[in-house]
């Protein structure tokens, strides 16, 4: 009976696993949404609906649900995770800080939204991703020059942020014209973590403090060092979004008009919906995901890949690179892809030329050094998944019967040898027969 139960469970899980993240379909499909109140499901329904419209299967669960689990029988049940539970002190079921970090380390994606009074657990998750929230639990980001004009916001905690990261691949090619409304806590980036990037920064006049108390000491976070929204692309190409505002994803701010202080332009709709939608596309690999296929190398004029090269051989190297568009793969076009012919250090570094259809190629001569070499591509570009390709190939010296019979460069030595023999012969005759 137990075997039948396990079989039925695996049968139910198989369709989910088949539709999960894969090299041929890199978009996350099934996403777990952890919330601390089911009211969030309705107050943030526009954001969730945009995900569902794009084909995602959202599983809404309370963050303290005792039956929570990210994996079963060694297989992950979800491709992505959204944590909209800033006040949760402890996750239910088998989920904890280590489980979430393992989830990301295995290549899955994460969206984390904090808020005022965020729990230590949420702060620890963000800190592990390179984002350090203000230690004061009551602190919020205040901006007396870049706030959003509002009759109900006398503390200037509703910020109209427009200092975006300049990256079309992360934020989309269409520029966000209206400022993004943000109310929440700020964070700084860990300088030791080079993988985390500020996507939305505070203005130079902003600071982080408790708006209900007078400042007795300088704020710990000030100016453009405050990050409102940050992203991380891990070395395994997992993607993370850290936001200091849960309200930024809400229907109310999606639909709200915005006018930034000091500006006469009033936008009928904030940039929140466009900003959040575009950045979620990047987080869940609908954009900026690369793959490399058909890596080939051969001698010039040949089609078969050899098992070994000889020094000074002329060879050709080629690879095809494609970018995922959310629905299918299209050729990736760039002029900064390089290949290394590597042994301990690069002996040859060549730019690959592309034909505009995804094919990158080059040709070069094998150096006059024998040993075990590698063709290496280590491609990293802002917003794109990294490509790391390597292919090992040995290089041998000339065999004894492959050298030229007479080496041109050795003619002077040949001449000196024969002249020495001729001189000795003439000297011997003169010495023997001269009286």
TrEMBL record:
- Where on the tree of life does the source sit, at the highest rank? Eukaryota
Keyword Transmembrane attributed? yes
Q: Name one Pfam family in it.
A: OST48_N
- Its transmembrane ranges are 411-433
Chief location of this protein? endoplasmic reticulum
Give the signal peptide, or none. Answer: 1-20
All copies of the OST48 middle domain together span: 297-435
Q: Which UniProt keywords apply?
A: Endoplasmic reticulum, Membrane, Signal, Transmembrane, Transmembrane helix
Question: Which InterPro entries does this chain map to?
Answer: DDOST_48_kDa_subunit, OST48_MD, OST48_N
Q: Where is the OST48 N-terminal domain?
A: 30-283
Localization in the cell: Endoplasmic reticulum membrane; Membrane
**GO biological process entries:** protein N-linked glycosylation via asparagine
Q: In which pathway does it act?
A: Protein modification; protein glycosylation
Q: What's any one GO cellular component for it?
A: oligosaccharyltransferase complex
List the membrane topology term(s): Single-pass type I membrane protein
Q: How does it assemble?
A: Component of the oligosaccharyltransferase (OST) complex.
Main function: Subunit of the oligosaccharyl transferase (OST) complex that catalyzes the initial transfer of a defined glycan (Glc(3)Man(9)GlcNAc(2) in eukaryotes) from the lipid carrier dolichol-pyrophosphate to an asparagine residue within an Asn-X-Ser/Thr consensus motif in nascent polypeptide chains, the first step in protein N-glycosylation. N-glycosylation occurs cotranslationally and the complex associates with the Sec61 complex at the channel-forming translocon complex that mediates protein translocation across the endoplasmic reticulum (ER).
Per the similarity annotation, which family is this? Answer: Belongs to the DDOST 48 kDa subunit family.
What name does the UniProt record give this protein? Dolichyl-diphosphooligosaccharide--protein glycosyltransferase 48 kDa subunit
> Which organism is this protein's natural source?
Amborella trichopoda
